[in-house]
Structures are given as structure tokens and as C-alpha cells.
Write a structure and sequence with these properties.
The structure is a homodimer. Chain A is an alpha/beta fold. In chain A, about 45% of the residues lie in helices and about 15% in strands. A six-stranded parallel β-sheet of chain A has the order 2-1-3-4-5-11, sandwiched between helices. Chain A binds a DNA duplex through helix 2 and helix 4.
Chain lengths: ~325, ~325
DNA sequence: AAATGGAATGGTATCGGTAACAGGAGTGAT
DNA sequence: ATCACTCCTGTTACCGATACCATTCCATTT
């Protein structure tokens, strides 16, 4: 293992002081072009690599923005992540990503770990957390933002949409089409919290419309997948009898369920309608296309990025928590 | 913004020295249980948060392992990432993730950025990089590992499989089933480098078997999606005439293509076989199931994790670069 | 020639943990 | 009582980049 090359070494090689090296590499204007060239050459020759850790330590600014996501393998979260990365890279901020796997205890451990890196902002997916997580984040002195949800009691800032209201769009639409007996298919509400909100929203909307109680199905721990949807339908037996609409917590589940229904010779949507959520690519493949809800995953990322950048940059660290709502949009497919 | 609480503050509050605080919080055995309790209480009371940046600076060990992935929204990469995270968290290592979006220049920028964080190991997806990237990583004094590929000239360590050979499995299988005129559908080879390898492997295998030249199709920049597959088929016109097998670069593309073929009334596999790659969930949904290749995304993650942990932990920093190959496995579906 | 001003560069202290060593109190053996 | 030894705690220095202030050097003005 070779000795680590530092600014001191570069300085010695270039015949200047470390301070000058620092300025030269930082493109500070108070350095002669010639000096800069000498320094750059020395740095290249020695294979110098800038040390962000030391910089972060000295400046007490890590350059990190911590983000927790339930899953990495989800087109919508990926979309948010991508938009966020793009927006924050302008502000020289780097995402420090943690995956919770839909587990609040894992989230808590992750939050501890991420906080220790002194992030300049903390972004959580969802509005439900352990008490400890909440306490940790309430005490922290950087902006905290919850996204993808509208928590009853936000920790601080929020960029999200109401999962319950979004699902009501689906229910209203189904009711308008004359469907009355709904089943809801999703993951265990204890693990998929946004899914649970959707479930609640659907049930509430059905009740509001005076429809019979929605029948609840649960395929196990989040995330619910295509395979879950398909297997559920295949093994449902008489559970689906009497239902004229199967409301699914997400497009993949809906796609799997619909594939299994079609395979079993059921007519979609005539015998039974199927709806999804999230406007994933899968909703637009195959026949019929899925009726679903576009939630604006990318706008969420952009809005979060702008909000965070604003909160950090201008020292406009508004003590008033910002709460930005998005309005999910119904996408009509042929499945309903 | 409140003042940052440091070990000094905790020490003062607990009536001990900072060193004792350090030891107490680190669960060092050389501290009385009573002292530890006092310290812990003081830390909790003040809302102390440990500073990994300072620790990393002092110890010259960041605790980071840098990883670049082409995309976050891919079940196989996600699987590798998850396995890797699990393995490395045992070793108290945290992943620092960078997404290249299948762009080698983006990868280069990312590598610079990640190197500045002084990672203890560097993991790249794929074996093709810009010259600068290679040079940067050759000069670095931490283990470097390329995965998901078998580069002709590895930078250092490798855990991967031959994309070309994996695709040959498909071609051999198709030939055995009597298919002769192949089309290959994938993203632009200049952007999807592992896809390009698969393309090359398929063409080579066809040639080896004395079959007619494979017809090449290209749906644009990576990643190729379901929609690309479907749209390609819909707009292919006579391009597909005469082909009896459509080899796709990945399952999503294959699924989209197959859906469009079925929609157009073509019999799969009797008129035209369709094959995928990667054994994604989508391969097992719908009819027929896709013939595909299981590459072992999770084992890759586990092997990479173990290798890295071994290289770092035991100071067995083997100067002999490790190269671990996986053997992809053909998965027969009804689509071929 | 001396004074002034501005631009470029250097010296030094510092951020928060912790390795390495130093020291002090207590215990047990001789 | 003395010594050796253990166990716990404290002191000091340091990691690398950079803010802050001091200093040098030159050009320009009086």
C-alpha cells in the first residue's frame, strides 16, 4: 500500500504552500494561471486525489443528502431518485442512499447510520416511522423531508400526495362504470404503509358511495409483486366470486392478477375489472391496458430537490415547514 | 441552527474526559459499566450524534465501499445491490452508490467523485470504461472489482460471467429446436455494453453452428424496455419476415416483443420463438413463459461482498487479482 | 525616492474522534 | 511495607483541507 498523497506533497512538488494548492485546485481566481498550471501538473504527476473527507471535516459540511427508499427495484422510486440526483448534483450535493426494504426498524438503524455521516438534509420515503426515528430526526439540525406521502404529523417538510385520495379516484371511476362489489389486493398493511393508506382510501371511498364493504385480500409482506397477484388469483377459489372489480395496490400486482384472470378465461373488464396504481410501464403493455394512477414520481424528485437546494443554499432555512402536495391523475386503460 | 454537540460536550456533562466518552460509546470493555451508563445518559440528554466524518478522517478509513450501477431500476442489479449491502454491513461497510445511466462519461465523473470520498473498495458494473477511468482506478490503493462481466483486461478483481457465452446457451437451444433464422433485438451496442457482448455472443454462436447471419435490430440507447420491444414489433413491417426466432437482449424487451407478436396474431413459438435474458419476474408471468437465462445476480452480490470483505479484513490483500466466474443457466419457457 | 494599494502567496490554527502512551488507584503477594 | 501488576481514566498529538490573517512583491502615484 503506497503512501497517500496529500496537498502537502503536491505543494512540495510544485514548490508552493499547501494553501496555494488548495486555491489552485479549487479554481480560486486569486491564483496566477501559471501557478495553477504548475500545481495541476504536480498533482497529476503524483496522482493526487482530493480528499472529500478532510474537506467535509474541516468545513463541517459533508456534501451528503441522506435518502431512504423502501426499495431500489421500483420504477417510480427509481424515477424520483434520478430526478433528485440530477437536481442536487447542481448544488454539489451527493445522495447517500439507504434501502429499508419496507421495514421501519431497518429504517431506524439506517437513520442512525446516515445521521452519523452528518448529511446536510434528510429525505425519508413515507410518513410513518418508529418513535425513535422521529425523535432522532426532530433533534437534528438539518432540513428533514418526508416524501411520497402526506403524514398527519409531519416531522418538517413534505412533498407528497395523499395515497388515500389517489385511490379514491379509482373507486369513483369504478363506481361510475357501474362496479359495486370491490376486492382490494395488496401487501400486508403492516409492512406496506403507503399501500395501507391506499387500502384505507379505497374502503372509505366505497363507504362514502354507499357501496358494500370492500373485501380485503393480503398477499404477505411488502412489496407485493406480479407473482403475488397471479398466484393470488390462481388460488383464490371462491373468494373472488361475486366481485366485479379487483382494486390492486400497484400495477405489478394488478398485471399479475389480470394475467391469471385472463388465463382462467375470465373477461376483463366485463366480468371483473382490474385496476393498478403507479402508472408503471407494465400498465401499458398487453391487453387490456391497466387503469391506473399516475402519481408523479419524477416531479416529486424535482420538487424535493428544488426545495432542499433552496433550504440549504439561500440560508432561507424557512422555519415554516413547507408542504407541497401533488395531485395524482387517473389513467384510463381498458381494464375497467 | 443549534451548536453541534461533540464528545467534548458529552464529556463535560458526564464529568469525564472525551477519551472516556469515545471508549464508552464504542462499547470498549475497559470502561466501567457505571461510567458507560453516565456517559450514555449524558449523550442522550444532549442529543449527541456520533460523527462518522471525524472518525473516518482520523482513522483514514471511510467505511465506504463505492459501487457504480448502470441503473437503479433493474431487478437484477437491485438483487446484487441487496446481497452486497447485506454482506458488507457485517463488516461495518456502507455502500456509496453511483448511477451511471449506461453512460461511460458519467461513470468517469462518478468515479472521480466517489474516489474523493476515499472508499475502501471500488466496485464497478461492467468491464468497459474510459481510459481515464481505468487510469484513475489503476492508481488507487484500494481493491477494485469489476462485476457482471469478464473483461479482457481486468483492472484488478472480477466477479462475473461471460455475457457472450450466456447468450450462446440460448442460440444452441434455439438451434436444437430447429430454429435457423435469428433476429437480435437490443439497445444500441454503444450504450449497452453487456448487451453488446450478448449480441456478439449470439452472432458468433450462430456462425459457429453454420446458421445464416443473425439479423441485428437496435431500439436506441440503453436500457431497452418492454415498450421498446413492443413498439419495435409493431413497427417492424417486413423486417421480421423470414425470421423464426427473435433473440432479445433482456426479458423486458422480450416480453414487450412477445406481447406485440401475440397481439398481431403471430404464434409464439411456432411461427417465431422469442427469448429473453436475465430471468426477471416478467419471464414467468403470462403465456407462454419466456425462455431466458439466469445469471445469478444475487450470487454475484454475495461473492463480491465476501471477496471484498476478505480483501479488507484479513490484510490478505492478495496481490493476485481474483477472478470468479459464474455459470449462467438456461431457463426453458414456452416461448421457444 | 518614498508611499500606497492591490494581488498573490504563506503560516498557523482548527474541525472531532481516537491511537498511543502516561498515570493513578486498587489488589495481592512477598 | 514494598513491589508488581491490573484496571481504569486522562493527556497529547494527529489525520488533511482551508479560513483567517500576515506578509511579500510589484506597479503606480505623489
Amino acid at each position: 500500500m503506497t503512501e497517500r498523497v496529500t496537498m502537502r506533497d503536491v505543494a512540495a512538488a510544485a514548490g508552493v504552500s499547501p494553501m496555494t494548492v488548495s486555491r489552485a485546485l479549487k479554481q480560486d481566481s486569486s491564483v496566477t494561471a501559471e501557478t495553477r498550471k504548475t500545481v495541476q501538473a504536480a498533482a497529476d504527476r503524483l496522482g493526487y486525489v482530493y480528499d472529500s473527507t478532510a474537506q467535509a471535516f474541516r468545513a463541517q459540511r459533508s456534501g451528503f443528502v441522506a435518502v431512504t427508499l423502501p426499495s431500489i427495484n421500483n420504477a417510480n422510486f427509481a424515477s424520483t431518485h434520478k430526478a433528485l440526483t440530477a437536481r442536487l448534483s447542481h448544488a454539489k450535493l451527493q445522495l447517500l442512499l439507504g434501502i429499508t426494504n419496507y421495514d421501519l426498524d431497518a429504517e431506524e438503524r439506517l437513520v442512525r447510520q446516515l445521521l452519523a455521516r452528518r448529511p446536510e438534509a434528510f429525505i425519508l420515503t413515507g410518513g410513518t416511522h418508529t418513535d425513535v426515528t422521529r425523535k432522532l430526526l426532530q433533534a437534528v439540525d438539518c432540513p428533514v423531508l418526508e416524501m411520497w406521502d402526506i403524514p398527519a404529523q409531519p416531522i418538517q417538510h413534505v412533498v407528497g400526495f395523499s395515497n388515500a385520495e389517489a385511490m379514491a379516484l379509482i373507486v369513483d371511476h369504478l363506481a361510475q362504470r357501474g362496479h359495486r362489489r370491490f376486492g382490494f389486493l395488496g401487501a400486508n398493511p403492516g409492512t406496506d404503509l403507503r399501500g395501507a393508506e391506499r387500502r384505507r382510501g379505497a374502503a372509505q371511498a366505497a363507504r362514502r358511495l354507499g357501496l358494500p364493504d370492500m373485501v380485503q385480500f393480503d398477499v404477505g409482506p411488502a412489496p407485493a409483486t406480479m407473482t403475488h397477484g397471479a398466484n393470488f388469483v390462481r388460488n383464490a377459489g371462491p373468494a373472488l366470486e361475486g366481485l366485479d372489480a379487483l382494486i390492486c395496490v400497484s400495477d405489478p400486482v394488478a398485471f399479475g392478477a389480470m394475467a391469471a384472470l385472463v388465463e382462467a378465461g375470465r373477461q376483463v373488464p366485463d366480468e371483473i375489472a382490474v385496476t393498478g396504481f403507479g402508472n408503471f410501464e407494465i400498465a401499458r403493455i398487453g391487453h387490456p391496458k391497466l387503469t391506473t394512477v399516475e402519481v408523479g414520481a419524477q416531479p416529486i424528485g424535482l420538487m424535493v430537490g428544488d426545495l432542499i437546494a433552496g433550504l440549504l443554499d439561500a440560508e432561507t432555512r424557512s422555519l415554516v415547514p413547507q408542504c407541497q402536495h401533488l395531485d395524482p391523475r387517473l389513467i384510463l386503460g381498458g381494464s375497467s
